[in-house]
Amino acid sequence: MxxxxxxxxxxxxxxxxxxxxxxNLVVGYCGMLTLVHAGFYAIGGYAYALLTLVLGxxxxxxxxxxVMLAATLSLAxxxxxxxxxGDFFVLATLAVxxxxxxxxxxxxxxxxxxxxxxxxxxxxxxxxxxxxPKILGFTVTDSHSFFLxxxxxxxxxxxIVWRLTSSPWGRVLVAMREDExxxxxxxxxxxMLKVQALAIASGLVSVAGTLYAAYVGYLDPSSASxxxxxxxxxxxxxxxxxxxxxxxxxxIVLIAVPELLRFLDLPDALAANLRLAIYGLLLVxxxxxxxxxxxxxxxxx
Amino acid sequence: xxxxEKMLLRSTRNKATTEPPHxxxxxxxxxxxxxxxxxxVLNGLNLELRQGEVxxxxxxxxxxxxxxxxxxxxxxxxxxxxxxxxxxxxSRSYRFPRSWWQKLNPFDHFTPEFVTREGVGRTWQDVxxxxxxxxxxxxAVAEPGHPGENPVLSLFARHLSFRREIELNRRxxxxxxxxxxxxxxxxxxxxxxxxQTKRVAIARAIAAGxxxxxxxxxxxxxxxxxISSILELLETLVHEQRGTLVIVEHIFNQLHLHGLVTxxxxxxxxxxRRVERNGGKDNSEHxxxxxxxGVSIQRPMWFGLLAGDGAEVVDQPQPRGAWITRIxxxxxxxxxxxxxxxxxxxxxxxGPRVIIGIDAQDNQTGFSLIVNEGETVILQAPNxxxxxxxxxxxxxxxxxxxxxxxxxxxxxxxxxxxxxxHLGLCALPSDHNxxxxxxxxxxxxxxxxxxxxxDISLFAKRTCGSLSGGxxxxxxxxxxxxxxxxxxxxxxxxxxxxxxxxxxxxxxxGAPSAQLxxxxxxx
Lengths: 301, 523
Hints:
By secondary structure, chain A is mostly helical. Chain A has twelve helices and four strands; from the N terminus they run αααααβββααααβααα.
């Protein structure tokens, strides 16, 4: 029993590591604060749910399609980023987040079957009964094998992020964060860089969304909500941005905090609210005493 | 340095530039026009730049030097005209105004990144290195056409960029060694001195493939050592690599460049008048004329303005290469002396380091200075001495760890900035000293200095953000209300000769009762 609980936590850790590392690519390396990350996470989850449930696709083709879809839709954020900077970029991401959330929430019709043009998302009721991952004829049913799958994907995503950020591409990204005008005057196409970084980050976070949908088996629009985006941001801000270690530490902290609360044996209604309050408190304390995060390299301004 | 040594240095410099450059044309501009708010700044300007030329772009405050620099480097689009970049083997022309279909074509934009690929580089007055990156990365990042900057290639075909990276790191380290920064490749760019950052910025632009280099006030804010190191670098560029430079420099520092410059561009009424120079002759004339105005190497140009005639001047050496010069003009100095600013045993830290209040051996001695009514006190110190830190501590932006500050006899070291202002402190920081989105006249109204509006009547109705650097500095100077003690950080920066006189010298209406001026050391 205790073993299953730990496996359950580790799967969540895998998912959050992908989320935090991909978000760090945008927030930490590009210096662009985004509130739309949960939107692309949900798009990954919904794409997987619909492709497997309605069309009966396997895990890998659904995953790849989800990644492609999220990466393409990231243009909705990266094109405005050509001209908008700072607070205005944050507002633009907020708008896209609201758009994605309301699409997922409203694209439904009680009289039409799920997955048709009239009822794509089943609206507020969400999609239940999402199949377990089927890979090469083998179905991942028990949590141990799912943990294996999630870990393989998390390691793969981490490897991609590590390889990219340690490459010359990562170096130009940091240069753009430090001084975009100076980078442009060295001949760097920063517009293209933003498109690339946001597409890669959105593609990666959709992997996390896919894993979540496959693990829990149920998905509703709340996974694209603003709270979810803020939770993701808290992860990288608490852990620290601009390097590899920070987001991983942030993911651990934000998984550990609610679990520790669980042992206090509080009533459920109170615990849920307390969790949000503690996230808020953590953020305020971090911003005040250690703005670069627990293990960050770069201070968000 | 002794005078004769200086002359020697200058004469060797002159010899090398006596042959006039006859290189290939790198840049040609025809009929360039630019207006701001209906006011013409550039008006049908033509120019031609040849390889090996070193151009000094001169002009009064507000004549459009920065605008021209921004246009030629692709940072600003002109209203009309043609620019031909012929430095690269593939020459490229831009005709303005651009048509709508050219704006849609993503491969034909007039932006800094496209102009840079035509072999144009620039530096900024405020340097703009990539602060958190290492020095090695700051130079390596400039490499043009690096395959590793494609994320797909760096993910799946790392071997393509692997060798190039090793070679690039080796070259960056060699370049840093050449700049006198050997072994500093891994220290971050915000941890080196101003002079060093300016050298790295020039090297970075060269590494990006610049054949024409536009330098915006490369000597600004530097002490003598910093200036000579930049000059050394520019000389190598010009003499060994036949580099082409266009330099905008403040009038005080132009003197240093005279051995290097081959051509003067005088920007006047929106067009350029080209003045060929023939080496040393012009240079010596300039020196003589400078000295006849009572300005020598030891006493720079602003000195005559502040001291006038018949002033008592006292120089006091300070630890770590700083000098305090007191100017007491008869008729203005009050006897008996009445202190308006008293700094005693001040110790200020920035992070773990003590910045103010240490001697050359790093012993904590405390910094003391008294400014009396009617006195002009000039603190000249090399870069990195801690002038800005002292300025911030006096204004109440940093809390000192020890010592006391009194303004007009009242203890001020625990007071907030605005309370110190009420005591009679008027402070002028070296930058961010006007509100960029306000009209110039509103800045003066805000500082309750409406009388001064007539001094800036030429541009009173424009927003400060649209003003040139010199005009902005004039607004900032005019916005200082008459108070007990005026605190100025590099007040003459960006001002040309004519406008230096707008500085409120003690005794003139609008001036405070005493002044403390911070300047980088030139002696």
